[in-house]
């Protein structure tokens, strides 16, 4: 069998309908090949003397448009199809005249006003009952109507044959027995129209039987056949009241969803088995039987049509042409391009085009230049010509009026319209009149490149050869056909969505996006197959990313690769070299036969047309586009762009134009925009050609310098949203003094923000350059220079480069005292900064003096609750804590915390720092449970507000780990210390003091777990790092000396441990004083070494000294004090001083019983 042997097209919508149709075949045929664009899945066979091609709608895609697409493909693949049958289920509309029951069959039959099927809506809400009849559709072919009459007469004389067909189906296909069996009258209930189905129930078991309509019982179960009008729409009818109203208004027998898509272009008969009553009581119980009844009726119908009648009936395509009384001598096809054998199919867009043409008879394809709009239109034109061989296809190049007029003149000549050779006749008027008035010819018109709104909406001289004052001037849009129907179709391609919508009476455009990755790779492979085959997939993807998946750019790249015999890798390397290289390659003109002669073939030159048009028509919009192109291409905040327009309406119109040309896109949420990097590079190329790139780079730099907020926590979200754009504009060269001023200001703000976010390397680079620019422009003593210097000093401090930070802080302080005065807040901030760097160096006394000076100044100048005052109090508390003055420090921390919560809020980073510091001083006092709660609060807040890798968060992690360790929770502590160490190594670097502190802390946990060798190695690493970074006398270095000594001592390396303890003690006495808790810890540790060496007398003296100091500084109930008591008792017993030991032990026991917290000894 061949395609031309099939004469009947059978269409169904559901799998149950398809199964019933296949079951009716007398014979199955083998599958035949079909074109790639035909996505139907055919079942071929014979019924009686007729060969039938059966196709089902795609799964889940029902409705008018889907049916039309399936029918179009059948007609194209099987050219000898004489008529169609639309066979399946429907919803019955019973009335007094037509007692339709479930399982009956309804057949479409014309009346005086319609062809048998009425399309009554375009998808409006059914439940509301608001429908607008949009007209009737064509009649079924005469051969079918004659067969229907024959069958009606047969049924008056004898029982229908369909019952026999159902029985044979059940025998032939046992699995279809249920479908062929009548479900039973007990399941056939028609409820009153106003009675709604109870929600949440699939069946009618809970429906009120009193609401059922009383009907007579039939004498048998033979399906009845009803002939009349069928209502068709894109939406399921499921409302009884609406069904009743439409049944009375339109006199319809049944409702369904597909037939209206077929009747104009696919003459057919509609046969519907009734499976429900088109109301809310729908269920699927009757569907298989109703589908089988409809299929059986269709078989019975075909069996009464003689073969010779089909021979005399023209195929569908020829029949539609035959209906014209004055057919054109030959179909006109004016597409000026060959069919593209390398076209990459875009199925979704083609289905959208067919849907728009079905619903509105017109469609506009919109998208940026180069995305393939014209190529889609060309391919559609060829497919249309194949499926509508008797129809005209007109191609109008509409980029300018000259070519528009020439295309119309060409159409007039090829159609041999009267007056086509007369130079005094307006050819556009002549063709426009024919398009609107001729009813004999079907046609498709394609208006290509309808980009210029002014061209179509401003009057144009269309008859330049005529003389005198009567020369005709009209709008081009007046000549675009308006009278459209299923035989007269219009497609537009445009870069401007607004123009496209205007051309189709405000209907939505079909947006043509760049390719998907699969489509893009297919196009590249088709045009440069050899080079692609030798290339890795990752390289191909990277190239397509750069090309933006834009078809024209991909075609251009493939042509360049092929012409120059390059590898894909080599071409990619050239594009990635720099922006200039990218612009050079993508602005090359390589001829593409698929594009109009004289029209740009490079993607950059193509987009330049859009930019020039916008500049001419909307100069302010062109300025906005130019400025947007200077920013980072992603997440451009609307609030950053808004001040560029004086009026909001102008701003909105400008954004709308850019969006309409697909040059920018609105991102999810609606408050940010994006510009594709390739479009951005194209705008740069355009501006460079106009010598305007430097100007807009300066404008963007000034905009960011003015709009980038200060780095305060309250501005964090805004800063983060603008950071990428600030970094983008900082990449451009400065060409003026103003540029340098704005650059320095922006660098300062960005550097401050990066410092607050813990990005110290970036902050250092930005602060350094800002300081350099200001110093060279304004001098060392200018306020802005001193501010940049202070920022640089702060960054150095956070990097642990304390000596350099101290030197810069002193310079900044001297300058501000000189320029601003000693009490100016900026001067006081420098005092505070200098004190902090002194504290980090262990110079606690000097730092305390500076902090007190700053605090007194802030309280006087700003008030006691100002955030800067609270920060100063916090810093003073820190240095007091380092000196072992825990009670005073605690009181100050408490004051800061209360003030911060009140002024800044409980989640502000400064508040969380206060929480962490208060926890620290509680831990030093042995109040571990309270400290742990505070540490947990600080950590959770920091993770939420700052992120898990922020330095402040990592400090909170470390602090919580310490208090866990103090309580003997070594496993949990070790896990937290490891997290802190890994985070600090990543964020701060391996030699940062904070990182070395975490190394030391992790070593202590290992020590507590008895892993002394591993602890020794970690302590050694920490010590070497502190000696290098902070110096041998720094308190942190001395703490490391002490801890290393403890690890050596546990391994019985007493001599080495003794030397290290001695060094730690001497250093702490010098740096911290003889009564500092850390000094007293070293005294205790040295005594322990002496004890282990059997030097009990010397050990006793050292333990006595440690105990007296701790009682004075820490209090008699501090865990560390109690540990010293225990140590002293041990050494007294070793010497036989039992009475003295007993007295001290009794005192210790009494203290513990009175409520002192017990816990492992603190070794630091």
TrEMBL record:
Coiled coil: none
Annotated GO MF terms: catalytic activity
Biological process per Gene Ontology, one example term: nucleoside metabolic process
Family matches, as InterPro entries: NLR-like (IPR053137), Nucleoside_phosphorylase_sf (IPR035994), P-loop_NTPase (IPR027417), TPR-like_helical_dom_sf (IPR011990), TPR_rpt (IPR019734)
Pfam families, per the entry: TPR_10, TPR_12
Protein name (database record): Nucleoside phosphorylase domain-containing protein
Organism (species): Endocarpon pusillum
């Amino acid at each position: 069998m061949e395609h031309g042997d099939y004469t009947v097209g059978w269409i169904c919508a559901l799998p149950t309908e398809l199964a019933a149709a296949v079951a009716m075949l007398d014979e199955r045929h083998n599958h035949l090949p079909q074109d790639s664009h035909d996505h139907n899945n055919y079942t071929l066979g014979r019924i009686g003397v007729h060969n039938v091609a059966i196709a089902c709608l795609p799964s889940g895609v029902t409705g008018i448009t889907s049916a039309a697409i399936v029918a179009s493909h059948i007609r194209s693949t099987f050219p000898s199809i004489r008529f169609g049958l639309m066979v399946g289920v429907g919803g019955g509309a019973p009335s007094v005249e037509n007692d339709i029951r479930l399982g009956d069959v309804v057949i479409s039959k014309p009346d005086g006003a319609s062809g048998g099927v009425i399309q009554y809506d375009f998808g409006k809400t059914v439940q509301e009952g608001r429908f607008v009849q949009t007209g009737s559709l064509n009649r079924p072919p005469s051969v079918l109507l004659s067969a229907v009459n024959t069958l009606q007469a047969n049924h008056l004389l004898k029982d229908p044959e369909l019952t026999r067909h159902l029985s044979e189906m059940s025998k032939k296909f046992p699995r279809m027995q249920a479908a062929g069996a009548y479900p039973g009258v007990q399941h056939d209930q028609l409820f009153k129209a106003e009675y709604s189905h109870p929600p949440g129930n699939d069946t009618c078991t809970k429906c009120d039987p009193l609401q059922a309509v009383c009907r007579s019982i039939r004498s048998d179960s033979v399906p009845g056949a009803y002939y009349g009008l069928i209502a068709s729409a894109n939406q399921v009818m499921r409302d009884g009241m609406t069904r009743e109203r439409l049944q009375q208004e339109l006199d319809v027998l049944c409702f369904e969803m597909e037939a209206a898509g077929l009747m104009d272009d696919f003459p057919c008969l509609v046969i519907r088995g009734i499976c429900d009553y088109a109301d809310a009581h729908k269920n699927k119980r009757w569907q298989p039987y109703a589908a089988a009844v409809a299929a059986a009726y269709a078989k019975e119908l075909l069996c009464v049509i003689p073969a010779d009648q089909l021979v005399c009936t023209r195929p569908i395509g020829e029949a539609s042409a035959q209906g014209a009384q004055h057919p054109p001598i030959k179909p006109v096809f004016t597409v000026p391009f060959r069919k593209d054998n390398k076209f990459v199919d875009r199925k979704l867009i083609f289905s959208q085009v067919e849907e728009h043409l079905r619903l509105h008879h017109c469609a506009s394809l919109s998208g940026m230049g180069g995305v393939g709009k014209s190529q889609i239109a060309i391919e559609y034109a060829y497919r249309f010509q194949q499926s509508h061989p008797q129809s005209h296809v007109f191609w109008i190049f509409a980029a300018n009026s000259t070519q528009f007029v020439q295309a119309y003149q060409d159409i007039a000549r090829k159609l041999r319209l009267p007056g086509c050779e007369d130079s005094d006749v307006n050819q556009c008027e002549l063709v426009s009149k024919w398009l609107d008035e001729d009813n004999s010819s079907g046609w498709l018109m394609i208006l290509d490149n309808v980009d210029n709104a002014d061209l179509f909406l401003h009057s144009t001289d269309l008859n330049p050869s005529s003389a005198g004052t009567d020369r005709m001037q009209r709008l081009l849009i007046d000549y675009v056909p308006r009278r459209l129907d299923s035989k007269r179709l219009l497609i537009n391609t445009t870069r401007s969505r607004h123009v496209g919508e205007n051309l189709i009476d405000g209907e939505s455009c079909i947006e043509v996006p760049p390719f998907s990755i699969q489509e893009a790779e297919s196009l590249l492979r088709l045009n440069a197959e050899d080079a692609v085959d030798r290339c890795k997939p990752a390289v191909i993807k990277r190239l397509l990313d750069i090309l933006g998946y834009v078809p024209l750019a991909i075609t251009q790249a493939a042509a360049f690769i092929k012409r120059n015999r390059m590898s894909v890798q080599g071409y990619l390397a050239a594009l990635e070299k720099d922006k200039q290289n990218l612009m050079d390659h993508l602005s090359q003109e390589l001829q593409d036969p698929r594009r109009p002669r004289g029209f740009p073939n490079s993607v950059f030159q193509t987009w330049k047309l859009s930019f020039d048009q916008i500049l001419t028509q909307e100069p302010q919009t062109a300025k906005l586009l130019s400025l947007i192109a200077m920013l980072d291409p992603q997440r451009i905040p609307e609030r950053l762009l808004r001040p560029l327009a004086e009026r909001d309406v102008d701003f909105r119109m400008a954004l709308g134009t850019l969006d309409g040309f697909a040059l920018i896109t609105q991102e999810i949420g609606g408050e940010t925009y994006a510009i594709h990097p390739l479009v951005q590079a194209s705008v740069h190329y355009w501006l460079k050609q106009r010598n305007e790139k430097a100007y807009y780079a300066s404008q963007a730099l000034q905009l960011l310098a003015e709009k980038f907020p200060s780095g305060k926590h309250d501005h964090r979200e805004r800063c983060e949203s603008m950071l990428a754009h600030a970094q983008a504009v900082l990449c451009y060269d400065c060409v003026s003094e103003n540029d340098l001023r704005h650059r320095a200001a922006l660098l300062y703000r960005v550097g401050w923000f990066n410092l607050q976010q813990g990005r110290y390397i970036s902050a250092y680079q930005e602060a350094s350059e800002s300081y350099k620019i200001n110093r060279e422009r304004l001098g060392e003593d200018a306020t802005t220079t001193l501010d940049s210097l202070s920022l640089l000093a702060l960054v150095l401090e956070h990097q642990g480069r304390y000596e350099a930070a101290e030197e810069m802080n002193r310079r900044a302080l001297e300058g501000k005292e000189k320029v601003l005065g000693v009490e100016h807040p900026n001067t006081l901030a420098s005092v505070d900064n200098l004190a902090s760097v002194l504290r980090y160096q262990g110079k606690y006394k000097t730092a305390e003096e500076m902090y007190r000076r700053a605090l007194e100044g802030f309280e006087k100048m700003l008030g006691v609750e100002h955030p800067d005052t609270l920060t100063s109090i916090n810093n003073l508390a820190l240095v007091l804590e380092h000196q072992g003055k825990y009670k005073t420090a605690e009181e100050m921390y408490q004051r800061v915390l209360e003030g911060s919560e009140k002024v800044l809020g409980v989640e502000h980073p400064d508040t969380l720092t206060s929480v962490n510091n208060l926890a620290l001083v509680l831990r030093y006092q042995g109040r571990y449970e309270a400290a742990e709660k505070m540490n947990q609060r600080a950590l959770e807040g920091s993770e939420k507000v700052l992120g898990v890798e922020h330095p402040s968060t990592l400090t909170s992690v470390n602090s919580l780990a310490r208090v866990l360790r103090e309580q003997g929770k070594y496993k949990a502590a070790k896990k937290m210390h490891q997290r802190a160490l890994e985070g600090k190594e990543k964020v701060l670097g391996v030699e940062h003091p904070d990182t070395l502190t975490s190394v030391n802390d992790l070593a202590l946990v290992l020590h507590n777990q008895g892993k002394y060798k591993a602890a020794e190695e970690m302590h050694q690493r920490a010590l070497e790092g502190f000696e290098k970074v902070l110096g041998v006398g720094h308190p942190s270095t001395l703490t490391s000396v002490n801890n290393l000594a403890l690890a050596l001592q546990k391994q019985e390396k007493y001599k080495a441990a003794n030397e290290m303890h001695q060094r730690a003690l001497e250093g702490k006495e010098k740096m911290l004083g003889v009564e500092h808790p850390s000094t007293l810890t070293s005294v205790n540790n040295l005594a322990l070494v002496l004890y282990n060496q059997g030097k009990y007398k010397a050990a006793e003296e050292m333990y006595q000294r440690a105990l007296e100091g701790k009682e004075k500084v820490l209090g008699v109930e501090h865990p560390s004090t109690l540990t010293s008591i225990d140590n002293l008792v041990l050494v007294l017993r070793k010497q036989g001083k039992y009475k003295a030991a007993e007295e001290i032990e009794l005192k210790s026991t009494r203290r513990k019983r009175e409520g002192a917290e017990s816990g492992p000894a603190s070794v630091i």
